[in-house]
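Give me structure tokens for this 350-residue protein.
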Amino acid sequence: MNSSDLTIAIVGATGAVGRIALELLADRNHPAEKIVAMASSRSAGKKVTYANTELTVVEATPDAFNGTDVAFISASSEVSKRLAPEAVSRGALVIDDGSAFRMEESVPLVVPEVNGVDVEWHEGIISIPNCTTTPLVMVLDALRAISPMTAVTVSTYQSVTGTGAAAEIELLTQSRAVLDSEDVVIEQYPHQIAFNVLPQVDDFLSNGYTKEEDKMLNESRKILHEPGLRLSSTCVRVPVQVSHSESVAVEFQDAVSPEEARDALAKTAGIVLVDEPGNSVYPMPLKAAGADEVFVGRIRTDIAHDTGLSLWLSCDNLRKGAALNALQILDEVLKRNVLKPSRQAANSRA
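Here you go.
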């Protein structure tokens, strides 16, 4: 089956991720008549650009999924929980961008380059990881082939579009206000984001970590099939429009040289080495924006740990971190011929 034969619903078509999903589908020449742009009742009736035409947004209701084959949902967890089962009951495969189903045992959490085989046991819903988890597990998966990992420490530098389109507007509005010596209006975050960094992404838990940091731990364990993985992260919001970056330190069972790491990463699909620090060449969010790959550089021996390695990565959070990963999951589903749930596969998974 070809993906162009499928009717695809985009829930959240007016949002940051939804817009990118439409762009990617247009790049694939997906027929406009086989796309249903959905959003909340507030956006119903609006027009969204698609290739050389426009699509009229319809309200995302259960009956709106009648006749659809696939539903990409990029909305709040509440919306996903309400609509995803309705879409599945009407015969659609749901690929969900939120956190609503990620840790449910019956729902695969997939980065195709890492655990594409997991799509085979879906029961109607497949989840996309958090946009910081995706590039991280791609890098970790490539490196653990050299030596098993014993611990991972990550610091993230996350763009405002990880929160959504409204946060991007707020960053720009606040920046103009600061430059014009005007009052700054704060709505999306606890503090001003313009010309600032916030060491808080999502709410804090009782252990001092945030929900975002907790997601990185548990999602990485599930995707990598390593339930005992030791991973600690500090997630930080930075005044960048698009692309998340991460500082990653990995400890291995045996020492891994930077040369070995570069060789393994260079051979990994979806990863591009940008590693000439002597020439000031390294991954940056500005360069990652609009690209599909995970860019990795600053690869070096971690002088604080005998078997450690440190590196830096940048990745467009709206593309590979969300919309592109969703389309690649659909590609994986079609390649494996599992668009519809296979109870046998679901019941036999490890």
